[in-house]
Structures are given as structure tokens and as C-alpha cells.
Amino acid sequence: MAWEKVGPTLPGMVAGADLTSGQHLFVVVNSSGKVVAAGAGAAVDGVLQNNPNTDQAATVWGVGSVSKVVAGAAVLQGALVTPNASGQAITAVSGNYIAGRALQAATGAGQKIPVWVTSPGRVA
């Protein structure tokens, strides 16, 4: 079962797109200062904790938190993860930014697993 530990919450965030299906996805703050789903292999700012529509308040847990994240594929426990094109957690490969470490395994897409959100660094 996925578990969580609240870490730093990014203050004053609003959704830059319809994220009504975005809870527990990796997100970034875009150039307009709004929260959107992270792109494939991108550096992330945190994990979305609610389901806001465009311009509604977005709750984002940042680096240091342990948050549920939706898996985009099977992920091994302990794997370094990165977002896929939908902001879901997948195993990081060379050239990807690391978004965190999977604290439990996912056997397939759609499962929620606890991920320790870490400072971005690239996989060599």
C-alpha cells in the first residue's frame, strides 16, 4: 500500500491547465508561474496533491516529501524515477532528470506508489 510523508508545500500555486485528472502526477511550474504536468524525462518541482481545473489552486508537495505517484509502467522498488509524457513515474534512463526514488514497486501502469521526491539530477 502506498504511504506518504508531507514535505515542503509550494505556496500560492495555480493550475496552468485542466488538471482535474492530475492528482499524484509529477508537475512543474511553467514560465507563467503556473503548475502543469511534467514532460517526459523533465526536471520536476513536485507532485500534485489535488485535482484543480485551470486557474484553480494547486497543492504541490516538493523536494523531500514522500508522495503517492501514479506509475506509467512497471517500476522496481528502489528505482530512480522520472516522469513520462503524462507526468507518471517511470524508471529513469540515461539523459533523464531524476524526480525521485520508488519506495515500493509497481507491477504496471496506473498503480500509485510512494516516491521520495528528490532534487533533480541527470542520469549519466
Overall radius of gyration: 13 Å
Average per-residue pLDDT, rounded, comes to: 95
> What composes the largest sheet?
5 strands, antiparallel
Poorly predicted regions: none
Order of helices and strands: EEEEEEEEEE
Shape call: globular
- Beta percentage is 25-35%
Discrete helix count: 0
Helix and strand composition category: mainly beta
Estimate the helix proportion, in percent: under 10%
Straight-line N-to-C gap:
31 Å
Strand order of the largest sheet: 1-5-4-2-3
Would you report the number of β strands? 10
Output the keywords.
124 residues; mainly beta; five-stranded antiparallel β-sheet; 10 strands; 0% helix
What does this entry look like structurally?
- By secondary structure, this protein is mostly beta strands.
- It has a 5-stranded antiparallel beta sheet, with no helix packed on it. Strands 6-10-9-7-8 form a 5-stranded antiparallel beta sheet, with no helix packed on it.
- The N and C termini lie far apart (31 Å).
Brief summary:
The chain is mostly beta strands. It has a domain of 52 residues. It has no helices and ten strands.
Q: How is the secondary structure organized here?
A:
Layout: E1 9-10, E2 26-29, E3 35-37, E4 46-48, E5 60-61, E6 66-70, E7 80-83, E8 89-91, E9 100-102, E10 112-117
Antiparallel strand pairs: 1-5, 2-3, 2-4, 4-5, 6-10, 7-8, 7-9, 9-10
